[in-house]
Write a structure and sequence with these properties.
This protein has 381 residues and is α/β, with parallel strands linked by helices. The protein contains eleven helices and 14 strands. It has helices at 2-13, 132-153, 164-179, 195-213, 225-241, 260-274, 289-299, 313-319, 327-337, 340-368, 373-376, and strands spanning 29-32, 40-44, 56-62, 68-75, 80-84, 97-105, 115-116, 120-121, 183-186, 218-222, 253-255, 278-282, 302-307, 322-325.
Length: 381
């Protein structure tokens, strides 16, 4: 009697549960997210046809220790939730069996009974099958590179279109010879690991060799100690290759300052004091580019610039006599170094351009005919 009375009282004071509160989405399942780097599990469920738009579900991740952790709240109509790394969230650990618990949240504040998935384990995949297009295109480019390297090793000669700015460098050195004045070479403001600085060092080798042959002093102001060491060795080696080791001067390569505008002021001081016959700005530049170019213009020097920094190209084009624009700068480094391996890479890049332009034309034709499958193949997911 007492137990029956207690049960009746508990049922009387218990909150009413909506009729649909016990219902949870069917087809609930969790599995490792495919084609990813790990730490990600995808949870899916079937969306009922009559599901209200404001109905939401809460998902919890239950570890092997039985502790549940909230991982997100999404609309029931989504039908999928990906538990992955996001910002400070680490996502599910790899190699650990995890269970996901889903609870439906009703607009009146009530909740359904939770449903759990079968255990799922996250793991990284070695290959992303959705990026086969990237693999094929990169493989094609590498094949072009290997073929041209093989051609270069057999002694093949590569034709490279002459660039006016490259031809102007020899003219500038000739002008400096006639005027008996120096050549200023500015290798940019980045450190030696920057690809533009590396390309600049290759061009400096050719410039230093030609100035040594014509007995013209070259000045190379640098911003970092590492670039100074590399540039000094390049100039010294180039003088030896020209058969003029005595043409090397210990003060040819100078360290100015690691501060951007202190370095800029130091280079401008060299321009105004020595008034070099030619100024070569080849490397990566930023806000100092126009200051260099305007100072050199005021000093009456012939100026040749080259950079892949798009934001600085307009200033060089406006204030310099010749400018190597973007890719031309890297092509000039390969052309002036006369290294067969570098020229083979340049030729491989040309082949790749022909291929991509051909694919672009084919894609344009396919789109005009209403066929979008060809375009979709190039999407990177």
């Amino acid at each position: 009697m007492i137990r029956a009375a207690a049960l009746a009282v508990s049922l009387a004071i218990a909150p009413a549960v909506p009729a649909g509160a016990s219902r949870v989405p069917e087809g609930l399942a969790a599995h490792d997210t495919p084609d990813d780097g790990g730490r990600s599990i995808t949870v899916r469920w079937d969306v009922p046809e009559s599901a209200p738009e404001d109905l939401r579900v809460r998902l919890e991740r239950v570890g092997e220790d039985g502790v549940a952790r909230d991982v997100g709240v999404v609309a029931l109509s989504e039908g999928v939730f990906i538990d992955a790394r996001n910002g400070n969230e680490e996502g599910p650990p790899d190699g650990v069996s995890l269970v996901y618990r889903l609870t439906t949240l009703f607009p009146d504040g009530s909740e359904s009974l939770p449903a759990e998935t079968a255990p799922a384990v996250s793991k990284p995949q070695f290959f992303n099958s959705q990026r086969i297009n990237v693999l094929l295109l990169l493989s094609t480019f590498f094949a072009f590179v290997l073929v041209n390297i093989a051609r270069a090793s057999r002694g093949a000669r590569f034709h490279v279109r002459k660039l006016p700015a490259v031809a102007a460098i020899d003219e500038a050195i000739g002008r400096a010879t006639e005027m008996g004045r120096s050549v200023l070479y500015v290798p940019g403001i980045e450190d030696v690991e920057d690809i533009q600085t590396i390309a600049s060092m290759m061009i400096l080798s050719r410039v230093a060799r030609e100035t040594a042959r014509h007995d013209v002093p070259v000045r190379v102001p640098t911003r970092t100690p590492f670039v100074m060491a590399v540039a000094d060795e390049v100039v010294k080696q180039s003088c030896m290759e020209a058969g003029r080791p005595d043409a090397y001067q210990t003060d040819s390569v100078r360290f100015i300052s690691t501060e951007q505008f202190a370095y800029c002021a130091g280079v401008n001081g060299i321009i105004l004091r020595e008034k070099p016959a030619a100024n070569l700005y080849l490397g990566r530049f930023f806000a100092e580019s126009l200051i260099f170019a305007e100072t050199g213009f005021a000093a009456g020097s012939i100026q040749i610039a080259g950079t892949a920094e798009v934001t600085q190209l307009p200033f060089f084009i406006a204030a310099c006599d010749y400018t190597l624009i973007g890719e031309e700068f890297f092509a000039a480094s390969a052309y002036m170094s006369e290294d067969p391996m570098l020229l083979s890479n340049l030729k491989a890049a040309d082949w790749a351009k022909v291929l991509f332009v051909s694919l672009l034309l084919v894609g344009t034709l396919m789109e005009s005919l209403g066929v979008s499958g060809f375009r979709d193949w190039f999407l990177v997911r």
